[in-house]
Amino acid sequence: MATSLTHNQLCPNLEFHLQKRLPKPKPLTIVAGKSNPVISGRKLRAAVIGGGPGGSSAAETLAAGGIETFLFERSPTGSKPCGGAIPLCMLDEFSIPPELIDRKVTQLKMISPSNLTVDFGKTLKPHQYIAMLRREVLDAYLRKRAESNGALLIPALVTNLEIPTSPLAPYVVHYTRGKSRLSLQVDLIVGADGANSRVAKSINAGNYGFAIAYQERIKLPDDKMEYYETLAEIYVGDDVSPDFYAWVFPKCDHVAVGTGTVCSKQDIKLYQRGIRQRVRQKIKGGRVIKVEAHPIPEHPRPIRVKGRVALVGDAAGYVTKCSGEGIYFAAKSGRMCGEAIVRASEGGEKMIDEEDLKREYLREWDNKYISTYRVLDLLQRVFYCNNATREALVEMCKNEYVQRMSFESYFYKELAEGNRFEEVKMAWNTMGTLMKCKLVGREMEVLSV
Fold this sequence. Notes:
The protein is of the alpha+beta class. 37% of the residues lie in helices and 24% in strands. β8 and β9 (117-119) form a beta hairpin. The longest helix has 30 residues, at 354-383. 44% of the residues are buried.
């Protein structure tokens, strides 16, 4: 049995580029079979909603693998409030050119509520560093690379998705471009449109907790900027966040000063004033050049695949607790999702279904990374609950074994295998530190009263 569907008419400019850069789309014709149906006279057609690291990586992989790919991005010149730190493994794995890197951080300081400062970079090897970049630079590069592999970038706001009522019917993407209202039929959708994902809402993917990140980009005098040339700082304390941390990260010609919270979103500006107060001497004479705020998911969504729709990046909830890292996991999930679709569709020759996405993408993702999310979730619940435990966290970070294990896990995105003797000793010392710091915390509370 064959189902024939006509392609929606696009706006003149988009149609021109489509004819220029990709073969003219043919009717959505699918020939049903006993297993995955063969697609007749064309390739599988995908819409990727959201052009950040997750969406761009998915679009690049899909297009390179033979899938007809449309990448929607509402604001190609915009930027997301983000610390902008990426691990070493991402530079190689995603072929990030060195000229995109603003700063190579080789010094990391952690500052406790009582201003105890720990140099967290003592164990870094000569070739190891934390790469700092601006999201608008990285995102634009990844989108351009997706285009060079055959994806068609559509700068437009997706307003609605029509969900098919039969297994082989198309999804319809409704979007606005300028004053024009347009639509496009596709076989599948990759939702990479952030924490407030419209795609996730369309498939009833469920709610999740999210944090608010608030960041100011501050242009510093040359002598102040020199201090942060290869240095990043992390601050913890009730004054800067009740359940997260605040940061000062160096960029090309400015620093990003920000904080985040889950439980007290309405007070985010109060905590931003707190971090500014903590670093007031270091940023004295600085000028705010940009203010940014954005929601950040706290855990994976209950549903990440439904029908022929898959969520990646922030839309799927792939931001780690404790560290708040999301760039690498967005790009990685986008690539893994794209690879899964290419495999299941045999290079775009066959239709795929929900079981294909769950088997080839979701199961692979969870097997590879779910342990990392659980460990970091536990660490956040233990060490970010009050000032006493935050003091314990910073004191624990004096330990070179803790530093080495932390960096190995961060740089290479695998839970590093440790020394059992060192781990027992670390656990014992951590318990002692927590007990001591809770006593100190109670004394501090008494003194403050």
